[in-house]
Design brief:
Helix content is about 30%, strand content about 25%. It is of the alpha+beta class. It has a domain at about 5-130: CBS-domain. The strands form five sheets. Strands 1-2-3-4 form a four-stranded mixed beta sheet. The chain has a three-stranded mixed beta sheet with strand order 7-8-9. The chain has a two-stranded antiparallel sheet with strand order 5-6. The longest helix is centred in the N-terminal third of the chain and has 11 residues, at about 25-35. The protein starts with 16 loop residues before the first strand and ends with a helix. Keywords: Amino-acid biosynthesis, CBS domain, Methionine biosynthesis, Repeat.
């Protein structure tokens, strides 16, 4: 295997946000540049980091006076993680992976001489792994921790289950054993279901009367319903077999710009192979 340094894979230049800027701006920057985290600055000094996880979860945990405000009025400092862990450009990729694992994070600001010069993320780890020459299979590295939800489960329920199990994706099922889609935390952050207070929006369902004698259907009323898994899921989903070479699988993740895929054997989902498993493997390299 080839051990490289953080500076070989880090993203640069770095998009940052000031601590007093609104959450809405952070979300817009993440969407525009397809990124999952932003270093938070205060007069040129790193004071925090905000991620997609923070945006989808922490506003609901904030003090009541913040929860009542639209997200274009809530400053980043309310939801950011203070004193973020950083890494040096000359650190190795396994050292970065170890830091991510130990602190349960998926990205690190890269700091040199007091300045943020880059960001290293789970996607960079996938790219690094995809360039290796190792024989491990998906089955050897995959996780068996799988969250299954029904397509009619509300987004609130899906998020709650993600938080309980500590994972960032859920496979969506109908009434059989084959998944029909996948919901990810990233997808929730960038979807239209988040309301102005970052609460879950509702959708309008038109309820109709039976046909009248003239043969016309008349709208009876409009009912508000919560968004459910099928409203935001990605479908169809790509899958892997347990025998697939792990490096080849990581190349697919990198090429498709996705974080993970379910592992299927005999039409049953038996695991999940993602950036998390790749980071754990890289962290074991010395």
């Amino acid at each position: 295997m080839i051990i490289k340094k953080v500076k070989d894979y880090m993203s640069t230049p770095v998009n940052v946000i000031e601590r007093n800027e609104p959450i809405q701006r952070a979300r817009n920057l993440m969407f525009k540049y397809s990124i999952g985290r932003l270093p938070v600055m205060d007069n040129g000094k790193l004071v925090g980091i905000v991620t997609k996880y923070d945006i989808t979860n922490r506003i609901s945990q904030a003090a009541p006076e913040w929860r009542r405000r639209p997200i274009d009025k809530v400053p980043i400092q309310v939801v950011m993680t203070e004193k973020p862990i950083t890494i040096f450009p000359d650190a190795t990729m396994p050292q970065a992976a170890e830091l991510m694992i130990e602190n349960d994070i998926s990205g690190l600001p890269v700091e040199k001489d007091g300045e943020i010069v880059g960001v290293i993320t789970s996607r960079d780890m996938v790219r690094h792994f995809s360039e290796q020459d190792i024989s491990s299979t998906v089955q050897e590295l995959m996780s068996k921790n799988i969250l299954n939800v029904h397509r009619h489960h509300t987004i609130g329920h899906v998020l709650e289950e993600m938080n309980v199990q500590g994972i960032s994706r859920a496979l969506v099922y109908e009434d059989n054993r084959t998944p029909v889609g996948i919901v990810t935390r990233s997808g929730l952050t960038f979807s239209d279901i988040m309301g102005p207070k970052d609460d879950m929006e509702t959708k309008n369902i038109k309820m109709t009367r039976k046909e009248s004698t003239a043969g016309r259907k008349q709208n009876r009323y409009v009912r508000q319903m919560p968004f459910v898994a099928e409203d935001v899921m990605t479908s169809p989903i790509l899958s892997l077999t347990p025998e697939t070479n792990a490096v080849e699988a990581s190349k697919t993740l990198a090429e498709k710009h996705i974080i993970g895929m379910p592992v299927v054997k005999d039409n049953d989902v038996v695991g999940y192979f993602s950036a998390d498993e790749i980071i754990a493997e890289i962290g074991r390299w010395k």
